[in-house]
Amino acid sequence: MVTSIDDQLDALGASTDPALGRYATMQLCRRFEETVHDQFHSEQGVPGPLHLAIGQEAVAVGACHDLRTTDVITSTHRGHHHCIAKGARTDRMMAELLGRRPGYSHGRGGSMHIAIPEIGLLGTNGIVGGGIPIATGAAYGLQVQKRDDVVICFFGEGAAAEGVLAEALNVASLWKLPIVFLCENNQYVELAAQDLHVAGEIWRRGTGYAVPGVHVDGNDVDAVTAAVGEAVERARTGGGPTIIEALTFRWFGHYAGDKAAFRTDEEVELGRAGDPIVRARKALDPVVVAEVDRVVEDEIASALRFALSSPVSGPDVLSLNHLASV
Amino acid sequence: MVTSIDDQLDALGASTDPALGRYATMQLCRRFEETVHDQFHSEQGVPGPLHLAIGQEAVAVGACHDLRTTDVITSTHRGHHHCIAKGARTDRMMAELLGRRPGYSHGRGGSMHIAIPEIGLLGTNGIVGGGIPIATGAAYGLQVQKRDDVVICFFGEGAAAEGVLAEALNVASLWKLPIVFLCENNQYVELAAQDLHVAGEIWRRGTGYAVPGVHVDGNDVDAVTAAVGEAVERARTGGGPTIIEALTFRWFGHYAGDKAAFRTDEEVELGRAGDPIVRARKALDPVVVAEVDRVVEDEIASALRFALSSPVSGPDVLSLNHLASV
Amino acid sequence: MSTEIATKSTKYWQGISQALTEEMDRDERVVLVGEDVGRAGGPYGLTRGLQDRFGADRVRDTPISEAVLMGLGVGSGAVGLRPIVEVMFFDFAMLMMDQLINQGAKYRYFTGHPLPLTVRAMCGAGGHNGAQHSQNIEAWFCGVPGLKVAMSSNARDAKGLLKSAVRDDDPTLIIETQGLLRDRFDVPVVDDLLIPLGVADVRRTGTDVTVVATGRMVPRAVEAAEGLADEISVEVVDPRTISPLDTATILESVAKTGRLVVAQEALSPCSVAAEVCSLAAEHCFAELKAPPVRVTPDFTNVPTPLPLVEARVPQADTIAAAIRTTLA
Amino acid sequence: MSTEIATKSTKYWQGISQALTEEMDRDERVVLVGEDVGRAGGPYGLTRGLQDRFGADRVRDTPISEAVLMGLGVGSGAVGLRPIVEVMFFDFAMLMMDQLINQGAKYRYFTGHPLPLTVRAMCGAGGHNGAQHSQNIEAWFCGVPGLKVAMSSNARDAKGLLKSAVRDDDPTLIIETQGLLRDRFDVPVVDDLLIPLGVADVRRTGTDVTVVATGRMVPRAVEAAEGLADEISVEVVDPRTISPLDTATILESVAKTGRLVVAQEALSPCSVAAEVCSLAAEHCFAELKAPPVRVTPDFTNVPTPLPLVEARVPQADTIAAAIRTTLA
Ligand SMILES: Cc1ncc(C[n+]2csc(CCOP(=O)(O)OP(=O)(O)O)c2C)c(N)n1
Ligand SMILES: Cc1ncc(C[n+]2csc(CCOP(=O)(O)OP(=O)(O)O)c2C)c(N)n1
Ligand SMILES: [Mg+2]
Ligand SMILES: [Mg+2]
C-alpha cells in the first residue's frame, strides 16, 4: 500500500510542528517547479507557457498554511505554489502542465488555467487581476451563506495597477467581506522592474478605503503565516478585509525561457540570497529535513512519472465542458 | 451692436474682482439650469435626461476660474456647470439640451454628450468614470507636447468607486502628469445616499500612490479656487497630480423629475442652506450684484430664445460625423 | 371547464419583477446584485420591495464598480449561490467584458463545475438616453462558448426566460428591452411560468415569408404581419434564445416559406440578423425564393431625442416594406 | 529597367516594426503607448529600439491598467497627438471596451472633431497561450459606427495598413495575428508603403469559387487554391479592412464565380464570415450557384497545447474540402 505524502510527512512530524510542515510544502512547490522547468528544457518541452514562482514559496505557503479546504483562494498566472499550498495534487497538476488527459483541465488548459473548486481554488488566471473580482464575489457568497470561511486573493505588484483592486477594496470595506488581499511583490512585472508600474506603496493602497494595510517579509514564511493568520482571523470573525504586501523575489524571467535581460546578475544573486527555503531550513533538524526532502523527491518523481505515462490529450477534449445543458 | 456677456460683466468689474467674476459665473450656471428645469416641466419638455448640478456651482466655477482655454477638463453626466465654467456658450448648450440643430452636437446628443474640444472641454459623459481615462490621456498628451497646460478631471463620489480612478492615480503619479482629480462630493449617488458607495475618504485615496490629497468646502467658491489653484500650479510646474475632494450638496433628485424619495425634507433643507451663491453674494456690493444678475438674466433669456427659435433637429443629423473619411 | 389558460394583462417590467420574486422565494441561494437594486428599488422600479422581502444580503446594492459587480456573480456562483447580476444599461457591460467572457463563460471549461450565473441587462433605445445608454451589443455574446444568451420580446417571455435562467446551471445573459418596459402583454396565469432556453417561438404561422425578429422588433413584426394578412401570409419567429439558436425551428420555417426577413434593433454588421441570414443561405439554399432581407437601423449611433430615436429604429411599416420586397 | 517593384523577404513582425519606425520618424505627434513596449522592446520584441530612438515620452511603458491605457489614446489623441495604443493580446481589449467603444469611437460623433487614434491588437491562437490569450473577437468591433477595423494576413499589409491607420483621422483598430509573427513574406521595397483602408485585395483570381479569408486563413486559402488549381479555379479575396467592408470587391467576385467560401480563425456565430455570407445571399442571390460555406473553428474555447490549437483551427485542407463542397 502506498502512503500519501501527507501521511508520510505527518509521520515525520509535519502536523505537530507547523514550521516543518511549511518547510515541506515549500520544498514541494520548489521541486515541482524545478522539475517542470527541466521538462521545459527537455526535448519534448512543455506545451504551454510556464511562469515560475521559484523563490516566492513562502508567500503562498505561509498564507495558506492555516486555511481550511473550504476556505477559498484566487491565484494568478504565476500560481503553481498557490495551488500546491492550497492542496492541489502534484500528479494531476504535472499532468495538466504536460498536456495529459488526467490533468485538472484535461490537459488542455495548462499552467494558467488550473482551477479546483473542490479544494477552494477558484483558479490561476491568464488575465492579470482577473481573480480579484472573483475573490470579492466569493467572499460575498461566503458572507451571504453565513459560513465562517474566508478568501485570500493573491495578486502581483504589477496587477495592483488594475482598477479592479480599488473596486474590490471599496466593496470589501463597505461590506466587511471576509477577504485578505495579498500582494506578492516579487519586484518584477513581466519584462521590467517594478519602478515602471508601482507608484507609492501597495500596502497603503487601502488607506482611502479604511482597509488596514500590512507589509511583511515575504521570504520569511513564519512572518507571512503570522501576518496573514491575523488578517484571516479578523476576516473570519467579521472584522473585514486587510491588504498585505509581502516582499519577495522572482528567481527567473517572466516565463520559462525568458532570459530576463532586464536585470543584472548581481541583482539576481542578491535576490536569490533571500531564499525562503534555505531560511526555513536553518531552524529545523537537518536529519528530519533530509527525510522530508526525500519524501518530497519521491512525490515529485512519481508525479512526473504519472504525467509522462498518461495519454497526451487529443482533440476529443476540445469540446468538453462548455455548457452544462443545451 | 450687442455686447457679449463677458464684456458686460467686465464693465461691471468682473475681470478686476475675481470674486465678482466667480459670482457671475455661478449665477449663470444656476440660472441656466433653473431655466432648463422649467423647460423640463413645460408642456413640450426636454428631449433627454437632465442631471442638474444646482447647488454645486462653486466646485465647477472655483476650479475653472483660473484655467486657460487651452487647459483641459473632463466632465460627467452632471456637467452643465462644468461646461459653462469652462466657457461654453449658453445659447448653443440650451439648443443642444432642447434638441435643436445649432446645439453643440446638432441637438442629437443632449445633456450627457456635450464636448467642445476647442475650449478644452473633452466632454460630459454618460458613463460614470468614463472621463477619467480620457483626462489622464489628455494630461499625457500635454506633457509630451511640453505644453504647460493642465487637466482637471471632475468626477462624483459615486464615480470614485470605478477602478479607472485608481489606475489613473497610479499612472499620473508615476509620470508626474499635469492633472487634478477633482471629486465633487454632492452626498448622493444616483438614487441613494453615499453611504452605500463610499468606504473611507476619497481625498485620501491617493495615499497609496503618493498623490497628495486635499479636502475643501465645496460650497465656498473662494476656498475651491484656492485649493484647486494650488494643485493646478503644482501640475503646471511639473509637480504632478493632486486629488481634491470638494464637499457640496445636490439640491435635486438624480435626474429632473426624480422625486428623490431617498432623502428627507429636513436633509434637503439643511443641505440647501449651504447655497454657495448666497454665500458668495454676501461679500459683494448688492448694487453690483443686482446689475450682474440682470446681465445673467438677459443672457439666459436670450439663450432660451435662441434655442426655441432654432429648428428642431431632424433625422438628417443622424448620420453626421461618424467617420472623417471612408 | 375550458382548457384555455387564463391570462393577465401584465407590463413587461412586472414580468421581470415577478420572476425575481418567485425565484428568490423558491430558492434561498438566489441573490440579486446591482446598482440601486435594493434600497432604491431599481432604476426602473422593478426591484421595488425585494430588499424588504429578502434582506440586504440577498438583494445587495453595489457601488458603481462594474468589473467587480460581474465578479460578484462569478465568485458567489462558484461558492454555492445562484446570483443574478443586474446590468443597468447594456452599454455598461463594456466595463464587465473580462469578468463575463474571460472568466464566467470559461469557468466550466476550466473547472468542470457549473456556474449558475444569470446576468440581466437592459438594452435598446427605448428611453431617450443617448448613445451610451441604448446600444444593442447582443451579437458580441453570441460568439462566446460557455454562455447562453436570451432576449425577450414580451412580458411572458421576460418572466419565463428569466426564471429558467435562474435555474439553469450555465452562465446565461438575459437581455431585456428598455423600449418595452411599460408595454402590456397577456401573461398566462400559472403557478410556475417557465419558458425553456434554446426554444424559439413561432409567434404567428404563415406560408409566404418568414420574419425572424428579436426583442422590440417582435411586436412590430407581428403588427406588420397582421397588417399584411389579406395579401401575404407571414410567419413570425422569435428566437428568444439567441445563443445557442434554435436553428431547427428557424430553418424549418424558412424552408417552408422560402423567404426571409430578419428584423432587429441592433446594427447590421456581424449581428444576429447576419447569423440568421447566413444560416438560411447555407441550409435552405434550395428552398429560398428571394434574397433574405435585414431590417436594422442605419449604421449610426443612437441619438437622444425620442423622435430621432424612433426615426432610426425600424417600425412595423419598415418591416412590412421589407416583407413586400421578398415577394416583388 | 524592369517595371517590377523589388521585394524583400520580411517577417510579419518586422513589417509592423518598420511601420512604427517610419511613422514615428515622419511625424513627431505619433506616440506609442503600451505594456512593455519601451524599455523591454515589446512582448514580441517588435518595438525593440523604438524607445532609444524616440525617447520615453513617445514610446511610453504603461502599468497594467488597460482601461486607462485606452484612455491614454483617446485623451492624447484629443489634444493633438496621433497615438498608437498596443493591446498585447486581443483578449485584453475586453478591459478596454468602454474607452474604445463608448468613448473613442463616439468622439467625433459628439464633438465633430477627428480622433486620430490607432489601436493595435494581437489576435489568434498562434502561440500556445490558451483560452484567455488567443481569442478572435474582431466581429465585436465591426458593428461599431465611428471605428474602422483592419486585419492583416501578411507582412506587406501589416506594414501598409498600419501606416495608413496612423495617418488616418479616425479611430482605427488594426488586428495583427499571433500565428503569423515569424512567417516571412515578400514586401515591396518602396519609400512609403501604404495600403489603403477600405480596399480589399484580390489575392488570386479565379472563376469557379470565391474564397474570402481573413488574417491567418489567407495564406491557407491561397495554399488551398493552389493545391486545387488543376481542377478548380479559385479566387481568393482578403478584405483587409473588415469595417467598413469593401463590399463592392467581395460581391463582384461572388457574382462572377457564383460560389462562396469564407474562412476565418474567429468563431462562426455573428462573425465577419456571417456578414460576408449574408451580404452574398442578399446581393448575389441570383448569381449564387451553391450555398455559401463558412470555414471556422468548432464552437469551443481555444486550448493551450499547440497540437490541439492546430487541430481546432482550419487548415488549407479544411478550406480545400469546403471549396469542393461548393462544386459538388
Ligand atoms: C489583463 C492583462 N494584461 C496584461 C497581461 C500580460 N501580463 C502577464 S503577466 C504580466 C505581469 C504581471 O506582473 P505581476 O502582477 O507583478 O506578477 P508577476 O508576473 O511578477 O508574478 C503581464 C503584464 C495579462 N496577462 N493580462
Ligand atoms: C458606468 C456607469 N454605471 C452606472 C451608471 C448609472 N449612473 C448614472 S449617474 C450614477 C451615479 C453617479 O454618482 P456620482 O458619481 O456621485 O455623481 P452624481 O450623480 O452625484 O453627480 C449612476 C450609477 C452610468 N451612467 N455609468
Ligand atoms: Mg511581480
Ligand atoms: Mg454624487
TrEMBL record, chains A, B:
Residues 25-286 form the Dehydrogenase E1 component domain. The keyword RNA-binding does not apply. One of its GO terms (biological process) is pyruvate decarboxylation to acetyl-CoA. GO terms for molecular function: magnesium ion binding; pyruvate dehydrogenase (acetyl-transferring) activity. It comes from the Bacteria. The keyword Oxidoreductase applies. This is Acetoin dehydrogenase (TPP-dependent) alpha chain. It comes from Patulibacter medicamentivorans.
TrEMBL record, chains C, D:
Residues 10-183 form the Transketolase-like pyrimidine-binding domain. One of its GO terms (molecular function) is magnesium ion binding. Transmembrane segments: none annotated. Gene3D superfamilies: 3.40.50.920, 3.40.50.970. It is an enzyme of class 1 (oxidoreductase). Its cofactor is thiamine diphosphate. Its EC number is 1.2.4.1. CDD domains: TPP_PYR_E1-PDHc-beta_like (cd07036). Keywords: Oxidoreductase, Pyruvate, Thiamine pyrophosphate. This is Putative pyruvate dehydrogenase. It comes from Patulibacter medicamentivorans.
